[in-house]
Each structure stands twice: as structure tokens, then as C-alpha cells.
Amino acid sequence: MADASSTNVLNIDSLQTLEQLQEAYDKLCVEETKIQNSINELCKQRIPEFDTSSLNTVKSDAYYLAKELRSTATLADGVSCKVRKIDEAGSRISACLRRVDDILDLKLCADGVKDALNEEDYELAASHIKRFLALDEAVLRKMDTSSALEASLKVLHEAHEKLKSVVKDRLNSAARNEDTATVERFFKLFPQLGEHDTGLATYCTHISNRLSKIMDADVKAALDNNVRYHVKFADSINILLEEAAGLVNTLEPLVNAYYGSDRLKDALLHVQAECDKHALTLLTSFENERKLNDLDDARQIDPVLAEISSLSYRAHLYARFIQRRAPDMPESKLSRRIHDLISSYVALEERWMTESVFKAKQMDGTFSLNTATVSSFVDDIFYVLEKCITRSLSTASVQAACAVINNAVTLLESNLLENLKIKLSSVDKQVLALYANNTQRAIENVKKLKSKFEDDRTVKESAKLTAVVCELNSSMSNFTSLQNEFCAKLHLNVVKAKIVAAIDFFSNVSHVLNEQDLDCYEVDDPWTFQAIATMDMAFKSLQEDLSTENFDTLINQSAHEFSIRLEKAILSRTFNRLGGMQLERDLRTLLTYITSLTSWTVRDKFARIQQMALVLSVENVDELKDYCGASSSFTWRLSPNDVRRILRLRKDVKARDIAALKLG
pLDDT band for position 6 (50/70/90)? Predict the structure, then answer.
């Protein structure tokens, strides 16, 4: 291999003559021989000599095994063929035995059906016919060509026809006599006779007759009942649908058990068609007698709306009742007619709502509510709205309820809210107080409406209705804003001047005091008592006229303005430490007075002023580090610049001490 690898590669293109070609060929042959010898040497080193005698033994055994397997396979094929023949013979024997049994059954059925018919045992006769109908006549005739077979077949065919006629006649007779047990007895037999459709059709004829009798008797009596004149159509629909539901409850288990659940929908369609026919007749009579398009007076509209609501609710209940039994039932004609009626209902409800609200404002009066005066029209309007919304929900129609609630919200915004806003231009304290109370009363009523209808089951089951009810939040927000505007107007007209006067008293008092002045102020304060007396006159006059909520709002607004004006006044005055201490006393007195007027907290509005008084009363500026220093846990409202500015109001604090003060 070493020699071979060292041989130069021949350049074939350089060989030009025959001698050169022969020489090159000889060299290659020599090299090939050397390589072959090297390969042989390597094979001898790596592959041991194999014993070929063992291979001969294996070969002999393999031939023997193959011979045995061929013999076994041939035997197996033979056995398999015989087994198949035996199986086929067995199948033919079984089929033959079944046919023999069928012939025997046919004979027994022929004999049994005659006896059963003679004894009027129709259940037994029907079972014989059911067995007969399960047999294949063509196969039986191939097996038995005797006259006995034909005679049996003839007897059974005649019995089949006779039994169909008898069962149908007996069912119709029982239906006419209103014998429910007998009707059900014969209704069960039709499937055994192979007459499923005939049975359903016959029973549905019974249902049709039953509903017609109800219309002629109970419904007619309801329509003639003048005592319940305003709800007579609702009563009539209720009677009809309850009867139909009762028939369905009777029909459902019978159909499922004897006809198969797949035929229940067909049966319900028969019932629904008959029910629709009578219900649509009633609704047409309702529309004609109630004259929906000619109603003008709210007193005429109100009972009609109540009756439509009841009609819709009853139809909805019945539709759900049917839907639970057949989810894929198509929408009934009754449901479609109710949808059309709901459109008329929404229009009538809007008219009644608008007219009733108008009358409520015309009949307006006032009444006292916890010493505050309130207009009666506010509660009257919300009574109307609550009645309309409640009635719309009782229709069980999401479409109607959404439309009515939207109309109610629109009326609140465009009618009541705007009516209240008009009085904002008044300068009369009594009028402003009255309409502030009216607005507060409106807020309370909106809250009640929202709370009531949020908990309503119909609303909870509908995401759309829930969203519409939440629109009352917008109305509540608008009424709250208007309430604040009324209170702000009262503050501007009545209280603001008193606050300005009280601040003027403060500005006219010196706050650079000595010990004697401080003692005198403790006994006879020259500012606080006058300020309280001045403002108290205004507050007391309003407290008698305003509701508690409105008065609290007014006090809150007044406290806010008072604190702002007082802060400005403080920043324009000069103090010493004793003057700052007196300011702290004054603030405590004022806060005690203002807090006594309201249930709301107002201390947060005076937090900055109290901290200003603290800055003005410290003995040493370094004390402030405990309040507004970097390590202080005190909630401090004043910035470092505010603190320095306030300290500059102190005549007894040096400028260099203020400049040297290190605050957080």
C-alpha cells in the first residue's frame, strides 16, 4: 500500500505513442497486483477461518422446517374452508329457524288478533299487529306457499285495517266525551299499528277541539266579565295558554314514550298552530276594542298599557315553556304578533309618561320634609317614572324595557333637570332654597330607582338592561352638579357678604400683642365672637329652609371660601408670638362653631391655616424642624418657602434666623 500510494499519478494527456501506452499499462498491472496482495494479507489477519460444516446443518434444518410449515398451512387451509362451510350452513339453519318461527308467529298472531278483537282487548290486538308488521311477507311467501299462510296474512291485513278504524273512532269518541283516560289509551296504540302520523294528527284534532271549547266557554266568559273589563283580554290569553300548556304536559311523556322524542317537535308544532290561531283572534279583538291608535287621554292609556304588559308576559312565559321542550322550535306567530304589539306599547308608554309628568307639574304643591320645604311635583314625576319602568320590566321584553328606561332618562334630563335649572337665575332666597331641596329630592329618587332596578331579576339576566339602568348614574351626576350650583348661588347671595365682613373684622384687629392684650382677648375676643355672630345670622336663616344634605353642602362651600379668604388676610397682617397664639385660639373657636353646624368634616379645609398659626406661635424657629423637617412624620401642608414667608410676618423673628433655618 505504501508503494501504491507513492506511485505518481499518470498524466494521460502526455501519452502520445503506442509504446508509451503499453509501458503505462504494464506499470498499472504491476501496481494492481501489489494492491491485491496487500488486501489478501489484511483479510487473513482480521477474519478467522469459518467452519462451513455448521452452515450445511442449518441449511438442512431450514429445508425441513419449510416442508413442515407447508404441510401445516395446507392442513389449516382445509380446516378453514370446512369451518366456513359449517358457519354458512349454521347461518342458513338459523335463518330458516327464524322464518319457521315467523310462520308460527304469523299463525299465532292471526289467531290471537281475532280473539283480542272479539274481546275488545285492543292493547293485545295491537301487539299482535305490531309483531305482524315486523315480518317480511315476501320472504314468508317464498318459504311457504300454502293456502294456510295466505289465509293468515289475509286475516291479519283485515284485522290491521279494522283495528286502525276502531282505535281512531274510539279516540274521537272519547275526545268528544272529554274522557281523557280513554283518549290517552287509544293514542298509545297508533305506533304499534305503524300509524304514527295518523295518531299525532288525530290527537291534535282532539287538542284543537279542546281549545275551541275553551274559547267558546271559559274565554267567552272572561270576555263577557265586566267586573274585570280592563284586563279581560289578558285573562282570556292566560286561560288559553294555560290550557295549551296543560295539554303539552300531557302530550310530552306520551309522545316520548310511544312515538319517540324525535316526533315531539312535530306534535308541538300542531299544538302551537292551533294555539296561535285562537291567540291571534284574541289579539285582533283586543286591538279593535281598545282602539290603540285613537287613545288620547292618559286615563284611557294607563289600563291599556297594563293589559299589554300582562299579554306580553303571558306570551313570553308560554314561549319559554315550549322552548325548554323543543329548543329548535321556530318563533311562533303569537310571539311575532306580540313583538308588533310591544312597538305600540312603547309609543303609548312614552305618551302616558310625558302627559303624566306634565300634569304632575301642573298640580304642583309643597310639603315639609324634616322641616325643609319640597315641591310635590318631584316625587310625583319619579312615581310616574318608576311605574313606567316597572311596567315595562313586567312585559318580559328586553326591547320594551330598554326603550322605556331610555325614555325615562331622557325625560329626567330634558324635562325635570331643565325645569329645575331655570330657577338658578332667581335671586329670591326662598325660591333658591326650595329648588335646592327639589334637586336633592331628585337625587334621592334617582338613587332609589337605580337601586331598585339593579336588583330586579329581569335586569340581572340581561347585560343590555344592566347597561341601560347604569345610565341613571349620568342623571344622578347631573342633578348633583345642579345641587352644588344652587348651594353656591345661596352662598353667593346670602353668606358671602357675611364672610367678607367677618374677614374685615379680622383685618381691623392688631395681632402684635402683649401679655395684657392676650388676657383681655381671652375674656372679650374682638374678632371671633363678631365673626361668628355675623355668619350665624346667615346660616340660621338658611338652615330653616334647606334640607340637611343641602345645608351640609352650603357649609362645606362656605368653609372653603372662608379658609381661602382668611389665609389671604393672615398673609397681609403682622404678628408676634403672642399674636400667633391668639390666632390659634381663634381658629379653635371658629372650628368648634363650624363643626357644630354640619355632620361633614371641615377640619381639612383649615389645615393650612392651623399650621400657619403654629408657625406664627413658635417660641424658637428651630422648633419647626420637629414639624416640617426631613425626619418629621407630621403631615405638613406648607412648603419650606411658605414657612419662611409666614415667619417674615413675625416682628420678633430675625431675618438671619429665618435664612439659617434648614427645612426638608
Answer: very low
Q: CATH no. for residue 630? A: 1.20.58.1970
Q: Which residue has the cell 314468508?
A: 140
Say how many C-beta atoms besides its own lie within 10 A of residue 129's C-beta: 25
**Does some domain include residue 340?**
yes
Q: Is the dihedral of CA 573, 579, 581, 584 positive or negative?
A: negative
Question: Residue 210 domain-assigned?
Answer: yes
- Residue type for position 401: A
Q: What is the pLDDT of residues 601-660, one digit of tens each?
A: 888 899 999 999 999 999 888 888 777 755 556 678 888 899 999 999 999 989 888 888
Phi, psi angles (nearest 5°) of residue 5: -70, -20
435 touches 423 (CB < 8 A)? yes
The closest of 146, 121, 209 to 173, measured between CA atoms, is 209
Cα of first residue to Cα of last residue in the chain, in angstroms, is 96
What angle, 0 to 180 degrees and rounded to 10, lies between the N-to-C axes of helices 333-362 and 398-411?
20
Highest mean pLDDT among 60-74, 92-106, 379-393: 379-393
The pLDDT, as a whole number, for residue 298 is 85
In a domain, 403, yes or no: no
8 Å CB contact between 468 and 454? no
Closest CA to 446 of 399, 486, 489, 482: 482
Question: What pLDDT, in 10s, does the model give residues 499-535?
Answer: 999 999 999 999 999 999 988 988 888 899 999 999 9
- How high is the mean pLDDT of the chain? 84
| Residue found by looking up cell 328606561 in the block | 405
Distance (Å) of CA 387 to CA 335, 390, 618:
25, 5, 65
Is beta strand 372-375 parallel, antiparallel or unpaired with respect to 366-369? antiparallel
Cα 241 from chain centre: 28
Q: Which residues contact 19 (CB under 8 A, 6 or more apart)?
A: none
Contacts of 432 by beta carbon, 8 Å cutoff, 6+ apart: 423, 424, 426, 486, 489, 490, 493
Decide which of 294, 322, 350 is a domain's last residue.
350
Query: Which domain does 615 fall in, by range?
Result: 491-660
Task: Specify the DSSP element, H or E, that contains 274.
Answer: helix 264-290
DSSP H or E stretch at residue 81? helix 52-118
Q: Which residues contact 366 (CB under 8 A, 6 or more apart)?
A: 373, 374, 375, 376, 434
Confidence of residue 48 (pLDDT cuts 50, 70, 90): low
- Across 569-649, the runs of DSSP E, i.e. the strands, are none
Q: How many domains does the chain have?
A: 3
Strand, helix or coil for residue 575: strand
Q: What is the pTM of this model?
A: 0.73
Q: Determine, yes or no, domain membership for 106.
A: no
CA distance 546 to 55: 123
- Tell which wins on pLDDT, 3 or 652: 652
- Cα(595)–Cα(393) distance, rounded to whole angstroms? 46
Q: What is the enclosing helix (H) or strand (E) of 369?
A: strand 366-369
> Scanning the structure block, which residue is given the C-alpha cell 305506533?
191
- The H or E element spanning position 373 is strand 372-375
Answer with the one of 332, 350, 368 that is the final residue of a domain: 350
- Is 195's pLDDT higher than 80? yes
